Every structure is written in structure tokens, then in C-alpha cells.
Amino acid sequence: MSKEKSWTILELLEWTTEHFAQRGIEAARLDAECLLAHALGTKRLQLYVDFEKTPEIEERARFRELVVRRATERVPVSQLIGKKEFWSLELDVSGDVLSPRPETETLVEAALARLPDPRGQYRILDLGTGSGAIALALSSERSEALVTATDISPEALQIASSNADKLHLSERLRFLEGDLLGAVPGEQFDLVVSNPPYVARRDAESLPPELAHEPEVALYGGEDGFAVASRLVAEVRGALVPEGAFAIEIAPDQAERVAEECRKAGLEEIEILQDLARRPRVVAARKPAEPARDERK
Ligand SMILES: C[S@@+](CC[C@H](N)C(=O)[O-])C[C@H]1O[C@@H](n2cnc3c(N)ncnc32)[C@H](O)[C@@H]1O
Asked: Going by fewer Cβ within 10 Å, which terminus of the chain is more open, N or C?
């Protein structure tokens, strides 16, 4: 991208798309559009209206800086622009939180299907809330629910809580710091939902370079990926009311084992749900209505 030539928006997009594609960036055109829109302070679709316009020198300098960071450092677009859309909500993100992924919307759908009344006064727990994505999506859909969002990372909780303020959802949300259910001792919920860290540390070498910019605590579930999920499944029954629902996001190859762990933990109605790419993505289950025989003794 020479500094002398006066580039139109269309030329900048075409050059950058090619540049990103050559460096193995998958969504090259989309990334170029998002970064250019950000540098120009406009919406992505406006670029199409303004194809023949020539950005100012400062705008081009801002864009060039973003392009370099995307192409060479492989910083994710969401972190470069500080925003990520999830469930039609615009969330602030940074290097302190996992940028929410589209596949996590499968978990939100599974949760909502188990809380069918839009005005229900459900008590909901989102463990490992990160940017607040799941908790905020559920709160936006179930306006009477009381949502508790927890994380082990205080930095993440700050971002989640600020997102709640910006979306005017703070009133029925509370944010608590702690290790899994240790954040809510003795409490019970109608729904417990979680997208825990589930990447296996032994796979770290083969991961896309973008993941190096996301917090390790949000990614790795120990050596085999199950450390946090298995601990949660083993404990979750105590945090559910009778017939309370549980839904957890997993990596596709973890579904069978996590479903089996749910069975062993005394949960029932166990289902494995697929994401839009038809990969197993969520294990859902329910606490039995009656105490099990060994609990009555
Ligand atoms: C995969 S990210 C999910 C973030 C967000 N819920 C989403 O779906 O985009 C996992 C989150 O769990 C948090 N976490 C990791 N270990 C935890 C633990 N033991 N207790 C509570 N939160 C934990 C991380 O800080 C991170 O925010």
C-alpha cells in the first residue's frame, strides 16, 4: 500500500483482501472491510456506498496500522476494533476476555429452550462469563430473570459489567468473582450454563495464531481440555433446583465423554446438540424432579 498514491476505498479493500489472503487469513475481505470501516469511523455497509471516495491521509495511516497488526501479529479483528457482535448485541472486548464465538449462540438457544416463559422469574447462573456474552443474551431475552454471571478473572468481570451497563441490562444481573461454583456457595438455580475453557493444552502448538492474543485462562482446560468442564459437571447438581437445567459448551470431540459424566453425576434428559456447522457443541441435561434414593437417606 504505497503512501504516495491516492487510494480509493475500493482499491484499499482489494489490495488489503489480497494481502490478508496471501498471509493465510481466512475471512480476508470481511476483515479488510471491518478494519477500514473502523479506521474511517463508519459502518461496514457504508463502504459500498463510498467505494470511489478517497480517505484522508490520517485515516489511511490509521488503517495501515490496523492492517499491519492483523497481518503480522495476527491480532483478531475483534480486539483491533474493541468490539464483537453476539446475539445481535454489540459487546466491548479486549485482550482480557475471549471474543465471543458464533457457535456459542447454540448454547444460548439451548438455554432459552429450557426457560420457555419470556416473563419467567428464572434464576440463571452463567459460569465463566468472560465478556458477559451468554449472561447478557439470556438477560435480553428473559427480562424478568435474575442472572448471576461469574468469572475467575476480575478483568473479565469488569468488562462484562461495563457491557451490562451499556446495554441497560445491569438491573437484573449480578457479577461475582470465584472458582466455578465457589462463587455462589449454597445457592440453587433454575438454569446453570457455561462455556468453560476447553482447549487441550497439548494442542497449543497447532492452534491458529490469533488465539495467542486471547487469555490463557479462557482457553485451556488443562492438558486434555476436560479439567474445568469435568469438575463443573461433577458439582453442578448441587447448584440446581429439582428439574433445573444445565447446558455446557464443549469441543466436538468432547461431547460423548461429557454426556457420560453428566449421567454419572445423576443428571437426566441428557442431549448432545449441534452447532450450525453440524458439529456436536452443547451437552444439555436436567436434575431429576425427585431426590435420588441415596439423597433421601
Ligand atoms: C471460553 S471463555 C467463555 C467466555 C464467555 N462465556 C463466552 O462464551 O464468550 C471461559 C471463561 O471462563 C473463565 N474461567 C476459567 N476458569 C474458570 C474457573 N475455574 N472458574 C470460573 N471461571 C473460569 C475464563 O476467565 C473465561 O472468561
From this structure: C
Strand partners, 273: 282
Whether residue 57 contacts residue 15, with contact meaning beta carbons closer than 8 Å, is answered with no
Q: Please give the distance, rounded to the nearest whole angstrom, from the Cα atom of residue 148 to the centre of ligand 1.
A: 14
Q: What is the pTM of this model?
A: 0.95
Q: What SS3 string covers 246-292?
A: EEEECCHHHHHHHHHHHHHCCCEEEEEEECCCCCEEEEEEECCCCCC
Measured by CA distance, the residue closest to atom 24 of ligand 1 is 218
- The secondary structure of residue 297, as a DSSP letter, is -
Average pLDDT, 10 consecutive residues per value, the chain (297 residues): 81 98 96 98 96 96 98 98 97 98 98 97 98 98 98 98 98 98 98 98 95 97 98 98 98 98 98 97 95 54
Q: List CB contacts of 204: < 8 A, sequence separation 6 or more.
A: 220
Alpha-carbon distance 196 to 210, whole Å? 19
Tell which one of 84, 129, 138, 150 to mutate to probe ligand 1, the residue whose CB is within 8 A of the most ligand atoms: 129
Contact between residue 160 and residue 84 where contact means Cβ atoms under 8 Å apart: no
Distance in Å, CA 32 to ligand 1 centroid? 29
Closest C-alpha residue for ligand 1 atom 26: 218
